[in-house]
């Protein structure tokens, strides 16, 4: 028996997934190649890595403090790890030294695998325990260890994606202090003001999830983003219709959504 | 051989994701049991990864100490603390023993509280940079922030009773609307990203390659 109140969720998920899969298949078969607007924050990643190479300083990429087992923020962590693959690849291509500080031990092996693969494909030297570093599972201990790493290694670029809490500001303000170019991506509404105020570029909300698709040359990834936009249009229609109908005393949309 | 394992992992991921999603909508006892078992497995695997983290930490800091690199004295402090906590836990036989708790409560919470307090100054420097009215967006941010401060601080109502009301108007309508819009967008973003992972169109996120 389907649990009461989740039928509307099921219908919306099925329709949205169908839209995403449809554009994915169309892109895969080459029938339709969707063009999406480039996000300046993502374009800045390439420039930031090139800047680090010119300055002869490393690039730091932190995939946040969330784990892949977290029911709420696993998506953040997965998105951050996905983008790590891209940053590792361009760092190897451009010849920048990459540092990946890790807070949650559950993503350590995954991050190591991602970076090792990028290094192997680019014939670069991967130093065990130095490129991907486990710092601490405690947020403040991690924050202070990260700040220590910034002052010690003085990276020219600090990229922070994934889940952070109050220690985020300690990390980014230290980055400002050493003159690092900072790019952050977060879906945590409490971290967003910190990202906007202390970083050069901030990818807020869903932009973080879409970041990996933006940088991927494969049109299939862009197809999913287009499907995602269609799901958003459906939500906007429901919101506007729901607001108008509720204003005139009709609860049709509200009743449908509570199925 | 590696590619066969990777393909098997992708198929397994698809089925496990399907079971978890099905459990969310379908009230069926066997499905709840299966989901709980799967979640227990993830907890066991997570516990193992802590050991991998420990090995990584020991490898890095032992190299720093041997090469006397940079702030190598801090690495000695880290090693000493690690040994102290492990030995205390082993000798007392529990991580909730009096000795273990005493070492923890006299070292960790004071340091954490100090750092949390220091965050106030970082917020101030960070806010100063953001609130410089160089652009229209920054100007709007500055004006909104001033009204929110008047809403929270007692000085707002002391200057004029309307000031806190303007602040709550911004907070209740503009902030809440914006935040809900963001959360809806995030929800759809998670759905799209999850779908890409489940159907193996994004392998990097789980340590795979896009070779």
How do the strands and helices of this protein lay out in sequence?
The complex is a heterodimer of chains A (259) and B (211).
Chain A: H1 7-28, H2 40-55, E1 59-62, H3 74-94, E2 98-102, H4 108-121, E3 132-134, H5 139-153, E4 157-161, H6 167-177, E5 181-186, H7 192-198, E6 201-204, H8 206-215, H9 219-247, H10 252-257
Parallel strand pairs in A: 1-2, 1-4, 2-3, 4-5, 5-6
Helix pairs in contact in A: 1-9, 2-3, 3-4, 3-8, 5-6, 8-9
Chain B: H1 2-25, H2 29-67, H3 72-92, H4 98-130, H5 136-152, H6 154-159, H7 162-198
Helix pairs in contact in B: 1-2, 2-3, 5-7
Task: Characterize the structure shown.
The complex is a heterodimer of chains A (259) and B (211). With 259 residues, chain A is of the alpha/beta class. Chain A has two domains: 7-33 and 224-257, no CATH class; 40-215, Rossmann fold. Chain A is 58% helix and 10% strand. Chain A is built from ten helices and six strands; from the N terminus they run ααβαβαβαβαβαβααα. Chain A has helices at residues 7-28, 40-55, 74-94, 108-121, 139-153, 167-177, 192-198, 206-215, 219-247, 252-257; strands spanning 59-62, 98-102, 132-134, 157-161, 181-186, 201-204. Chain A has a six-stranded parallel β-sheet with strand order 3-2-1-4-5-6, sandwiched between helices. In chain A, α3 runs parallel beside α4 (108-121) and α8 (206-215) packs antiparallel against α9. The mean pLDDT of chain A is 89. With 211 residues, chain B is mostly helical. Chain B has three domains: 1-69; 70-119, no CATH class; 131-204, no CATH class. In chain B, 84% of the residues lie in helices and 0% in strands. Chain B has seven helices and no strands. Chain B has helices at 2-25, 29-67, 72-92, 98-130, 136-152, 154-159, 162-198. The two termini of chain B are 16 Å apart. At the A-B interface, α1, α3, α4, β3 and α5 of A face α2, α4 and α7 of B.
